[in-house]
Amino acid sequence: MPWFSFHFDDFAVSFLSVLFEGIPFLLLGSLISGFVDVFVSSERIAKMLPKSPAASILLCGALGLVFPMCECGSVVVVRRFIKKGLPLSSAVTYMLAAPIVSPIVAFSTYAAFKGQDPGQMTMLRLTLGFLVAAAVGFVVLRLPASSILISSGPVETKARRRAGFSMTAAPAGETTDFASIAQAAGFRQKMLLVVQSATADLLDVTVFLIIGAAVASVFNTAVNQEIILPFATNPPVAIASLMVLRSLLSICSTTDAFIIKTFATFPMAAKLAALVYGPLFDFKLFWLYSSIFKTRAVIALGVGLFIVIFLICWRISALNM
Question: What crossing angle do the helices spanning 187-222 and 8-39 adopt, rounded to 10°?
Fold first, then answer.
């Protein structure tokens, strides 16, 4: 039997199945992100945080349950937070945790793994995502900001561009987001901004869902599964390979569970590792993180997260999960 045999009908059924399962959650996540973008200012969130750095980190790790964001949106929001004085450790914790510790991600993960112990997978994903994000926050707390943040001028926000402002950089010290623009707007204008923000986020990430669904469908319908069986049956190799694959696919955390669950021959621990590592660090996030943090800090973050999550999930695989 050849290792690759492509049949369009099989591919189309698999591709549309993954796409139609994931799109509703992607749309819902984009709408919530749009409401947060318009109605919740970064100053308001900063005032909610406790003065204790440790308590602030832990709270930011769970803040995604109230203010959910996809990984692309969280990077943009955190850049605003940092400019407005939010402690770096708290900002990084929220940036990493929000794409996983989110009600949208919880619902989509549970729905995707229905029939495959969805409750356990959902709880493990959110818990491990929270713990890893908080751990990174405590590490950042001990490091000087100058060793992490890049030294650059203010970066123009997408809110400024959508609102029709000049395409030049903002004046020193100025930051503009939808929440600040909406302060002087009426309710109808605010709802228009919500739609604009949600639409932009939806368009930004839908392409990654389509690419990911296509790659996963080709993999599952055209590739002879006997070839990858050695990868799937060896726990360390299965965990590492699925983590790398998820990072290369660069799909949104609100829909990635629908794609990862299709790799039926891989153990649950490998799927868990992919679903935790991917939203924290993937191919597109490397470039997004590099707009805020120094390259060496970004590389250290990616390598460190990979090692920690790999070891944890390898230990979980020993429990026959």
Answer: 150
250: left (phi over 0), alpha (psi -120 to 50) or beta: left
Instruction: Report the C-alpha gap between 225 and 239 in whole angstroms.
Output: 17
**Residue 271 C-alpha from the chain's centroid:** 16
User: What is the sign, positive or negative, of the torsion defined by CA atoms of 89, 154, 68, 293?
Assistant: negative
pLDDT per residue as tens digits for the range 179-191: 666 666 777 888 8
For 208: left if phi > 0, alpha if psi spans -120 to 50, otherwise beta; the answer is alpha
Structure tokens at 161: 């561009």
Q: Is the pTM of this model over 0.85?
A: no
**Cβ-contact 292, 150 below 8 angstroms:** yes
Quick one: tokens of 225?
């599964």
Coil vs helix vs strand at 163 = coil
Q: Is 169 helix (H, G, I), strand (E, B) or coil?
A: coil
Q: Is residue 160 very low, low, confident or very high in pLDDT (cuts 50, 70, 90)? A: very low
Cα dihedral: 38, 39, 40, 44 (round 10): 130
Side-chain half-sphere CA neighbours of 18 within 13 A: 30
